[in-house]
Amino acid sequence: MTNCANSKSVSANSDSFHELNEGGASVPPFSRPALRVAAFRFVGNDHSHVVEGGLVDVDRRLTHVELLHAPGERALAARVFELLGCTVSDSGRHWFTAFIDTNLRDYANNSFYASEAPAEQLAIEAAMADSVDEWVEMVRAAPQKSPHFGVRVGTVEEHRAIIDNIRHASINDPELRGRIEMLGLFPHDAPDATATNMDQAFIWTNVISSGPLRLGQVIELQWHLQKEQPN
Ligand SMILES: [Fe+2]
Q: What's the mean pLDDT when you consider all of the chain?
């Protein structure tokens, strides 16, 4: 994902609470890598900074996804984030963080947070009708139509390595067998490609979820042919 070279400061909201939880702080703008700014010619306005070849910064962005794990599965949840290529930071308090950009370690942007599912959610999930298998079958058939979020990685090699690692874990890891699954790979140049500007891989897991753990979470792992989309 695009790294921010001009982020706003973090206000006293729930995200800064996460920072306090981790004892870390959002990387201030002046300490971010200068390379991404200095090499480009900025045009545009206060709301976006367009450079030759693409968009490198925006004021409004998706900052994080908040996920839950089942009681006793915090370490397993951390392993799933690591399989996705994230770096986990866990100080042992309520939430832990998984950085999508492993170089930046920004607690306020481009991150996953995870914590144990509250009792109220677990009670609702226990009462859910037992039709989860049918739902997962639907997701297997058309993961693009499932509720999901997407993560972009930097290279096609990284994309393929993550896919291989998840496939391997889904078969060989006794704790993850049946708990994580590669649903499908859709290369950009396949005849039935949904998107011709990226390779898409859809992963399902019920170790972490931003909704009901019984339904699990679909994650779309992308590699873009062109990192930034031209305007
Ligand atoms: Fe998608």
A: 81
CA distance linking residue 197 with residue 127, whole number of Å: 42
Distance 139 CA to ligand 1 centre (A): 12
CA 223 to chain centre: 13
Q: Ligand 1 centroid to 196 CA: how many Å?
A: 13
What is the Cα–Cα distance from 198 to 3, expressed in whole angstroms? 19
Task: Find the 186 Cα to ligand 1 centroid distance in Å.
Answer: 11
Which residue has tokens 């870390």? Answer: 24
How far, in Å, CA of 123 to CA of 194, rounded?
A: 38
145 backbone dihedrals φ, ψ, rounded to 5°: -95, 0
Strands 64-69 and 87-89: unpaired
Q: How far is the CA of 25 from the centre of ligand 1 (A)?
A: 30
The SS3 assignment for 1 reads: coil
Query: Where residue 58 falls among pLDDT bands split at 50, 70, 90?
Result: confident
pTM: 0.78
- Tokens representing 188? 């950009």
Distance 201 CA to ligand 1 centre (A): 10
Q: How far is the CA of 198 from the centre of ligand 1 (A)?
A: 11
**In angstroms, rounded to a whole number, what is the distance separating the alpha carbons of residues 77 and 96?**
10
